[in-house]
Design goal:
Elements (H helix, E strand, L loop, with lengths): L4 E4 L5 H13 L4 E4 L6 H17 L3 E5 L2 H6 L4 E4 L6 H7 L4 E6 L2 H9 L4 E4 L16 H14 L6 E4 L7 H5 L5 E4 L1 H4 L4 H13 L2
Parallel strand pairs: 1-2, 1-8, 2-3, 3-4, 4-5, 5-6, 6-7, 7-8
Helix pairs in contact: 1-2
Length: about 210
């Protein structure tokens, strides 16, 4: 089973992404997504290799965002695909042994992802986030409650992560919707005491 707390990298430069990943892992994170945008594949591979080494040191899972070729060439653990990225069937041909996750914003997207047999779904955004350039309609608690209930009614059991502008105070009510876990970026990146924060989040997730 995948860890319930998922850190998505951010930073002004690719080097910042690596520093923030190491800092998050040092605080106890076990599931990391390297999310580099507007970068050449050659550079992406280079930084993915470095991220993989860091993750191996901390016995953590590394997800590559959007690029199946980078995931393959760096022997990464997992690949995450957005709704406008390569389709899952094609990705599985390139990385047949990878964990594959997919983005969703609606219940129809959830149904699509379940048909594609992804290993997990990132459902969001929960609320406004500056991390993403093209933001889908925000879901809020009501949106998650509605979608998770529809999943239960339709016997869809793929693990779902809430994502998008999540703060510590939001986590208990999000988890109460029946969601599997949460994906965060800025919450951990900007924390002055990451270790304490990660312990606090995991305590909430473990008692859900």
């Amino acid at each position: 089973m995948l860890p319930k707390l998922h850190y998505i990298s951010q930073g002004a430069t690719p080097d910042d992404h690596l520093l923030n990943i190491e800092s998050a892992l040092g605080a106890g994170i076990k599931l990391v997504q390297l999310r580099l945008k507007n970068i050449s594949e050659e550079l992406y591979i280079d930084y993915a290799c470095k991220a993989k080494e860091i993750c191996m040191k901390y016995h953590a899972v590394l997800i590559i965002n959007d690029n199946a070729d980078v995931a393959k060439k760096t022997n990464s653990d997992a690949l995450h695909l957005g709704l406008d990225d390569m389709n899952v069937v094609e990705a599985k041909k390139i990385v047949p042994n990878c964990i594959i996750g997919g983005t969703a914003n609606t219940f129809e997207h959830i149904q699509q992802r379940c048909k594609e047999n992804v290993d997990y779904i990132g459902l969001g955004p929960y609320q406004f986030t500056s991390t993403k350039e093209k933001l889908s309609p925000v879901l809020g608690i009501d949106g998650y409650t509605d979608i998770i209930q529809k999943m239960k009614t339709n016997n869809l059991t793929t693990p779902v992560y809430a994502i998008g502008g999540i703060e510590l105070k939001d986590i208990p009510s999000i988890i109460n919707t029946g969601i599997y876990g949460i994906a965060v970026s800025g919450l951990i990146t900007h924390s002055v005491n990451k270790e304490r924060l990660v312990k606090e989040i995991n305590k909430i997730l473990d008692h859900a």
